[in-house]
Specification:
The chain is α+β, with helices and mostly antiparallel strands. It has helices at residues 17-52, 91-95, 97-111, 119-122, 142-146, 194-211, and strands at residues 64-69, 75-82, 88-90, 126-132, 135-141, 162-167, 173-178, 183-184, 187-188, 218-226, 229-237, 251-254, 272-274, 280-281. Helix content is 29%, strand content 26%.
């Protein structure tokens, strides 16, 4: 029996799989955290509605409510709560059996979304209580829950730049700002201030002198004054393009952004961000 080797790979994996997978995981975590915040605020609102008969402006007195973990890790109300003075009460004591039962049933629809997946959101707002029928029990701080922002206070706005150290050759590191959403296969597009561009220019020109211009794109900063106003022109020369079909693309004049920064190399140089220990972050996640 003769086994014939495969003439081609059975299938191909996209090159950007890693970046796409991490982006999907980050989006999933962010969505679960936001759901947790929304359900905590909704839980505080539900307690208020139960105690006031759905009159939002009516006075009521509640600082914490008991929640127990169900079999799937979701939280459910028991009807026990505490006043601002720390007095323990139940919904039944305050509004009667029928109203309490209806309120707990409706409230459970919201608290069920508080579970293991967003425990990092609700856990810090809860104090553990003695277990109920071998189930974990918690006292949720309603004052803190009601004050939670519905959106992640640390969330970055789309297009917002963050400061980071970057590298493209495992040797030279530079401070830059990047848009974490602007990545290609996990590599970032850094924007440098003019002083840093001068350093990059000096390094690339020294490398070209040592290793040959055919293997190094060089950066050049030309400076002068027009009518007493200082100006700088930043150029990148791709020496490999000279004399070939891409000769018209061999010299690129970089335009600064509104902050006077230059995107030297863009994605083509495969810049990658560094973490606090100067290890590569590919893809970059702030």
């Amino acid at each position: 029996m003769t086994t014939q080797p495969a003439s081609r790979p059975a299938y191909k994996i996209p090159a950007h799989l890693g970046a796409a997978a991490h982006a999907a995981l980050d989006a999933d975590r962010a969505a679960r955290d936001q759901l947790g915040r929304a359900m905590l605020v909704t839980t505080a609102a539900a307690v208020r509605d139960i105690l006031t008969g759905h009159e939002p402006d009516a006075p009521f007195d509640a600082s914490a409510v008991e929640l127990v973990e169900g079999g799937g890790g979701s939280l459910f109300p028991t009807g026990r709560y505490w006043t601002l003075a720390g007095v323990e009460r139940t919904f039944t004591d305050t509004v009667g059996l029928a109203e309490a039962g209806n309120g707990i049933h409706g409230m459970s629809e919201w608290t069920a979304y508080l579970d293991y997946s967003n425990r990092n959101v609700w856990g810090p707002l809860c104090a553990e209580l003695p277990g109920r029928d071998r189930r974990l029990a918690w006292a949720l701080d309603l004052l803190r829950a009601a004050a939670l922002p519905l959106d992640d206070p640390g969330a970055r706005k789309p297009g917002e730049m963050v400061e980071v150290m970057v590298c493209a050759n495992d040797r030279d590191r530079y401070a830059a700002v990047v848009d974490p959403d602007d990545q290609r296969n996990g590599h970032v597009r850094p924007w440098f201030d003019l002083d840093t561009v001068r350093r990059i220019a000096a390094t690339t020109q020294a490398d070209a002198a040592q290793y040959g211009h055919g293997s190094v794109d060089t950066v050049h900063v030309m400076e002068g004054a027009v009518d007493g106003t200082a100006h700088a022109v930043v150029m990148v020369v791709c020496w490999m393009y000279l004399g070939g079909e891409k000769r018209e693309q061999a010299v690129e004049v970089l335009q600064p952004n509104a902050d006077g920064r230059y995107a030297v190399g863009g994605h083509d140089w495969q810049w990658y961000a560094l973490d606090g220990h100067l290890n590569p972050q590919i893809p970059f996640r702030p």
